[in-house]
Amino acid sequence: MDGKGWERVRMARLGGSSASRGREAAQLRQVSSQTVRLGRVQPQAPSHRTIYCNDREANLLARFKVNSVSTTKYNILTFLPKGLFEQFRRVANLYFLMISILSTTPISPVSPVTNVVPLSLVLLVSLIKEAFEDWKRFQNDIAINSTPVDVLQGENWETVSWRKLQVGDIIRVKQDEFFPADLLFLASTNPDGVCYIETANLDGETNLKIRKALERTWDYVFPEKASEFKGEIQCEQPNNSLYTFTGNLIVENQTLPLSPNQILLRGCSLRNTVHIVGAVIFTGHETKVMMNSMSVPSKRSTLERKLDKLILTLFGGLFFMCLIGAIGSGVFINRKYYYLGLFEDVEQQFNPSNRFVVSILTMFTLITLYSTIIPISLYVSIEMIKFIQCAQFINKDLRMYHAETNTPALARTSNLNEELGQVEYIFSDKTGTLTRNLMEFFKCSIGGVSYGVGITEIERGQAQREGRALNEIQKSDTVVYEKGFNFDDDRIMRGAWRNERDPEIFKEFFRCLALCHTVLPEGDESPEKIVYQAASPDEAALVTAAKHFGFFFYRRTPTTVQLRESHVEKMGNIQDVSYEILNVLEFNSTRKRQSVVCRYPNGRLVLYCKGADNVIYERLAGTNQDIKRLTREHLEQFGSSGLRTLCLAYRDLTIDTYENWNEKFVQAKSSLRDREKKLDEVAEMIEKDLILIGSTAIEDKLQEGVPDCIDTLSRAGIKIWVLTGDKMETAINIAYACNLINNDMKQLIITSETDAIREAEEKGDPVEISRVIRDSVSHDLKRCLEEAQQDLHIFGQKLALVIDGKCLMYALDPSFRVDLLKLSLNCSSVVCCRVSPLQKAQVTSLVKKGARRITLSIGDGANDVSMIQAAHVGVGISGLEGMQAVMASDFAIAQFRFLKDLLLVHGRWSYIRLCKVITYFFYKNLTFTLTQFWFTFHTGFSGQRFYDDWFQSLYNVIFTALPVIILGLFDKDVSASLAKKYPQLYKEGIRNTYFKWAVVGVWAFFAFYQSLIFYYFTTTASENGHNSSGKIFGLWDVSTMAFTCVVITVNLRLLMACNSITRWHHLSISGSILAWFVFIFIYSGVMTPNDRQENVYFTIYVLMSTFYFYLTLLLVPIVALFGDFLYLGLQRWFFPYNYQIVQEIHRDEVDSISRTEFLEIGNHLTPDEARSYAIAQLPREKSKHTGFAFDSPGYESFFASQAGVYVPQKAWDVARRASVRSSKRTSQR
Amino acid sequence: MNVPTADPALEADAAVERKKKSKKPKYSRFTQQELPACKPLLTPTIVISTFALIGILFIPIGLASLSASENVVEIVYRYDTECIPQQSQDDKVAFIQSSATDKTCRTTLTVPKNMKAPVHIYYELYNFYQNHRRYVKNRNDKQLRSKEYELETTNCAPEATTVDGSPIVPCGLIAWSLFNDTYSFAIQNKAIEVNKKNIAWQSDKDEKFGSDVYPKNFQQGGLIGGAKLNESIPLSEQEDLIVWMRTAALPQFRKLYGRIETDLVANEQISVTIQNNYNTYSFEGEKKLVLSTTSWIGGKNDFLGVAYLTVGSLCLFLALAFIVLYLLKPRTLGDPSYLSWNRNPDRH
C-alpha cells in the first residue's frame, strides 16, 4: 500500500522528520509552498484517494463525485428564497420591505398596497433577470455535460456523454478535443508517449505544452490492450493547485511516482496528437480547473457609490421631515377638537394626554407616508438601462467590431458603463495591446551590409513629426506576404544572394536562422501550408524568414532538423538536407542567447548562436573588425527605428573539442543540484570565439490606430501609462511610436541601470544592493520632483516619467510612495518598464487609492490579470487566443483603438445618461413627496395622505417609469462622431460635472419650488364652488387634480432634460400621461363591490365637469416648469456647457447614418489592411509572446520560476535527450 | 520520427466553420444608437418666443377669468361671535352646549349688486380639520351604500355602536359631527324659499349613499356631535349629510347649504334668521354665511385670474428683457470661443 514514492510525498508534506531525507523534503516543500495559485488554495485533506483504473465496482465504494458540473446559482427549490435574499441585501429593497410591514399596522396612513405593489414589481423584474441569466448558465452546463467522449467498455470504445464519466474510467480523447476531466495520461499515438496540450483556458498561454506518459503505460493505446490495464492510482485529494500533483501509479506491484507531467487537466485541449488514452482521476467539481473557478470580485462604479451618499442624504431629509411632522403632531393634538372624538380611551397615537407617544408614533406614520422620497425603482431602472446599454449598444457596436479576428466588443459586467465615462488614468500593457505581438522579419544585416527596404511606422512617425518626406521604395511585385515576414530586397531574395560579394556568409546566416531555434513544424510539409509552433513569435519569424530565403525547415525529429535548401549548389537547385542536432543550449534570461551544435551531413560540426548584441559581441573571436563595426552601426540604426535586433554568430568545432565539451555537458545535465547553473557554465565554455555573421531586425508592429487613439485620449484629458516587461529602450521606443512621448517633453528617467547599482550588484551582497538602490531611488525621486515642479510651473513643459521595475519596487515603498505619486501625477505620460504583474497592480492601486482618480487597465495576457482586477475598470483584449485577461476583465475589446469608442462614446453617453436618470429620479420623487409634506401642515400633522393609495404606488412604477428609462437609453447630447471629434468633451465626465452636489442642489431647489406650486395652486384655487351649480370639491377631488398636475409636469420636465427626442420619447411620455388618465378614468369610474374606501369615486368626472380643471391643468404645469425653463435658458445663454456649444456648431448637420459605411467594410481595404486581413485568414499560429524573445527579457517565465511555477518540459527536451543518446552512439562508434 | 501532422481535411472544415460563424453584429439603428431624433436647442430665439407665446396666451385667459370672477356677487357674513348674546360672550362654549339657551340669531344683509338666481348659500368653517387622519377615515362606506352592510362599523370608533351594541347608521365621527346651523331668509318679511335639493354631487347620491339605508340610532348617545337625521328619509336623500361627508381638503372650507331661486336686487335688505347650533367655539373656529352667485368659472375666485395675469405678464416682461439683452449683447450660436479649452488654453 505504502509505496516508496507515496511515502516520499507524505514525508514532504509532513515536513521531513527524518534527517536523511530532510533536505530533499525541504526542497519539495519549498516548491509546493511557492506554487503560484489561482485563487485560494484549500487546505488539503491529509488523506489520499485510491483509484482502481478500469474497475467501476471497486471505485463505487469511494463515492467519487460525478463528472457533471453545475455553474448555476439557483435551482428550482432554492431560487425563491435565495433570490429574494440576494434582493433584500440591497438597502433600498430592505427599506421598502420594512415600510411595507409597517404599513400593515394601524399606524400607517396608507394601505399596504402603496408600498407592496412597487416593491413586488421591482423584485419581480430583478428576479426575472436573475432567472434568465441562470437559465443561460444552465443551458451552457447542459451543453458541456452532454459533450460526447469515448470510454472503454470491455474491449471497445463507447461514446458516452461527459456527465456519465466516472473516476477510474479509461477514456480516449481525440485531437482538438477538450479533456472532460482531470486525467492520468497513459498512452498516446505519438512516439515516446508524448502529447501536446493547449492550456489557454487555464492560464491564457497558448504555446503548446508537452505531457509525457510513464514509459510503463505507453502500450495501452488500443482498446484491446487498454482493457488489460489494471492499475491502482494513489494520489492527493482534489485541490486547486494547477501546477502540482503528487501520486503513485501501482501496476503489477510496481510503484511508479506520478508528476504533473502525466496529468491532463480539464479545460485543456489536445493538439498535434491523433488521440490519447487516459484514466480519469478527478471529476466534475473536483477537477483543478473547477476548484479554481473563483467569483470575480464585483466592482461597483464610483457613480453608484456617490448615489449611495445621495440616498443617505435623502434618508436624512426624510428623517428631518418626519421630525417636523412629529413635533407638530405632538403640539397640535388637543381635546378641544371634539369632532375628532379624542375621548379618554382614544388610541395612543391620538391621545392628547401623552404628547410624546403621539410624536413618536406619528414619526413612524410619516415615514411610511413619505417613503416615496426614496426612489424604489431607481436601482432596478438603472440596472435595466445598464443591461441594455451593454447587451445592445456596447456588444453590438459595429465600430468596435474587429473583422479580422471576428470579434465584437463584449461587456462582461453591466455595472461599470458609466465608469467608462469618467476614466482619468489608463494603464496599458504593451505587448499585444499597443503592439500587435506580430513579429515580422523586417531587415537584416549580413556580413556588414544592410538589407531590407521597408520603413517602420516609427520611422514614418518620426519623419512626420520632423516634417521630413520619406521616399518609400516601391516593393517589387513578387513580394511575398506571410505572417512574420515583411521583407523585401532584390539583392538577396530568390537566390540572388549568390551574386553578392561573399555568398558563403549568406549560407551561414540562413542556416543559422533555419537550425538554431526550438520551433516545431506543424501541418503539411510544404512551404505554403506549414505552420511553425514557436514559443515566441520572434522565433517563428526567423524560421519563416529562412524559409523565404530558400532554407525551408520542414521537419524536426528528436535528433535531426531537416531543411529543404534551394539555390545552394546552383540557382534553382532544390535538395533536402538533414542536419544532426547534437545539443541545444537553451535561452534563458541570464544567458540572453541560444545555441545549437549540429553536424552537417558531411561531418562538419558547427555551433550556431543567436542572441542579444552585447552578449554576442563579448564572445566574438578577435577577427574581422570591419563586420563588427558595420554590424554595430546597423544594430543602432535598427534599434532607433524601433526594431528588435538579434546577432547571429557561428563557430566551427573540431571533433575533439566537441567530445571533450560534450562529456562535461552530459555530466552537467545529469547533475541533480544546481543543474541550470552548471549547464550555463558548461555552455559558456563552448560559446566563445564566435564568428559574427550579421544581425536580424524584427518589427514589433503597433496595433492599428494606436498613435491616433492615444492622441485623442490624451486630448480628452486621459493620462496613459504604459506598464511593460520590456527593457527600457524598447519601452521608450514604443512610447515614442505611440505619441506618448515626444521631443517636446522632458524625460525624467529613474533607472537601476546605473554604475553604482551595477557595481553593488556585482559584489552580490543583497543587503548592500537594496541599500544602494534605495538610496538612488530616493535621490532620483527628489531630483525629478524638483525638476518637475520647476519645469511644469515655470516653463509649462510637459513631462514624461520613465521608471524601471527594480526602482519601482523601492519607489512603491510606503516612504517614497507619496513622492512617486506626486511626481507621476505631474507627468503627462509615464512608462514603467521591466515591471512584474504584481507591480502593475501596485501602480494601478497607487493611483486608484492615492489619487482617488478613476483608473482603467487594459491588457491581453495572463500577466495583466492582477492589474485588470485592481483598476476601477478592467479591459481585456479579446480575439487573441489567451482568455485569462478577458476572463478577468469587465470589458473586452479586440483592439486598443476601440478604447476611443468605448470611452469617448459609450462611456461618456452612459455617464451623462445615468447622471440624468439619477438626478431626475431624485427630482421626481422629491417633488411628489414634498407636496405630501406641505399637506401635512394643513391636516393637524396627523399624517393624513394627500393621494390615494394606488396613485402613490403606481406613481413610480407606471406613471413615471418608462420615460426615464428611454432617456437613459437614447439621450444623446452629441453624436458619436462629434464625441470623438471633440475629445475634450470627455473632461466633463472626469470632473464629474453632471453629478455634483451643485447639480443635485439645483434639482432639489426646483423640486421644492414645483411642489409648492402644485400644492398651493391646486388647493388655493379650489376653495369655492367651481361650476355654475356651485357644488364644492372634497379632499379627493383636489388631490386628484394635484396628482394630475404632478404627473404631467414631471413627464414634461423629462422632455426638457432630453438632448435628442426620438419617437420613443414621444411614445413613452405621452404614454405615461395617457396611462394616468386611462387609469383614473377606470379607477374612479367603477364602483367595486369589495370593501374599499371609495374616496376617489368619480372625482375625475366631477373635476372634468368644471372649468377649474382645465384652467388649472394649463396653468400649473407651465408655472411649475417656468423656473426650470428660465434656468435652462439662462444657463445655456450665459454659461454654456461645452457640449452645448458643440451642439450649436453642428446644429444644422443631419446625423449621418453610417449604415453604408459599415456595409462597405471589407470591400475597400488599403493594401496594408488587405495584408493583415490576409494574414488573419491564414491558419493561425497558436502561439503568443511568453517572453522567449531575446529582446524582451522573458520576465514572465522569470517571475514564474521565481514563484516556483512548474515550467513544463519543452519540445526541445525531446531533441536534447535524443541528442545525448545519439552522441553516446557516436562515441561508441 | 516526425511529429504527426494534422489532418488537412479537418483543418479545411474548421476554416469553413469559422467563416460561417461571423460574430459581426447586425446593423440596426437601435443598436448603433442612430435612431432618428429631433434635437431641440434652447436657443435665445426659442426662449424669447416661448416666453412671448406664454404671455400672449395667458394674459387673455387671465383677463377672462378675472372678469368672470368679478361678475360674481358675494355676500359674506361672519356670525360666530355676533350670534352669541352679550352676556355669554365670555363663555361661548357653555352657551352653545346648553340646551336651554335660545340660539336664534337675526341679522340683516344688504345686497350690494343685483344677484341673479340661483343664489348659492354656503356655510364656511375655519379651523375645522375635516382632513385630519382620524376624522377622514372615520366612516364606513359599505354601510352607507347598502342596507345589507348595516352592521359594518369598521373604522367608525368611537361612534360605531350604541351602548347596547347595535350599530349606528351612519356611523363614524364625520356623520356624528354633521353641521346643524340653519338659515332662513326673508325680504320685507316675505320668506324666501331655500332650495336644499341638488346640493350634493350626483355621483355621491347615486352610488355612495344607498336609497335603502335609513338612519338608525343616530345621535342617540350621551354626546351630541351635531345635527340629527330624519330616520324616515334614506341616506341618498339626506343631501346635507352627503355634502358634509365629502370631506374638505383644507381646514377652512365652504359647503353648499342650499339655493335661493329668486333674483336679488341691489340694495335689497335681506333679513336672515340663523339657528346658531353648531359648536365651533370649543376649537376657536369661525363660521360664516355666504351668499354667492356663480359664473362659468364658478364662485368668486380671483386666484386663477390673478395667477394667469401675473405669469403672463412676467413672461412678456422676460421676453422683452431677453430681446433687449439679445440686442445689446448678442449670443452667437456655436461660437467656438465659448469652449472651455479655448477660453483658457493653459489649463488644457
Q: How would you portray this structure in words?
A:
The complex is a heterodimer of chains A (1229) and B (348). Chain A is an alpha+beta fold and 1229 residues long. Helix content of chain A is 46%, strand content 16%. Chain A has a nine-stranded mixed β-sheet, sandwiched between helices. Chain A has a nine-stranded antiparallel β-sheet with strand order 17-16-26-25-24-23-22-21-20, with helices on both faces. Chain A has a six-stranded antiparallel β-sheet with strand order 3-2-4-13-5-11. In chain A, strand 31, helix 27 and strand 32 (873-877) form a beta-alpha-beta unit. In chain A, helix 10 runs antiparallel to helix 11, helix 12 packs parallel to helix 31 (962-970) and helix 18 (655-670) runs antiparallel to helix 19 (675-686). Chain A starts with a helix and ends with a helix. Residues 1-46, 1155-1165 and 1176-1229 of chain A have low confidence and may be disordered. With 348 residues, chain B is an alpha+beta fold. Chain B is built from ten helices and ten strands. Chain B has helices spanning 8-20, 44-71, 92-97, 133-136, 141-145, 173-176, 202-208, 239-245, 302-328, 340-343; strands at 37-38, 74-78, 104-110, 119-126, 182-187, 190-192, 194-195, 253-260, 269-275, 286-292. In chain B, the strands form two sheets. In chain B, strands 2-10-4-8-7 form a five-stranded antiparallel β-sheet. In chain B, helix 2 packs antiparallel against helix 9. Chain B starts with 7 loop residues before the first helix and ends in a 5-residue tail after the last helix. The model of chain B is unreliable at 1-20 (pLDDT under 50). At the A-B interface, strand 18, helix 34, helix 35, strand 34 and helix 36 of A face helix 1, strand 1, helix 2, helix 4 and helix 7 of B. Strand 34 of chain A pairs antiparallel with strand 1 (37-38) of chain B, so a sheet runs across the interface.
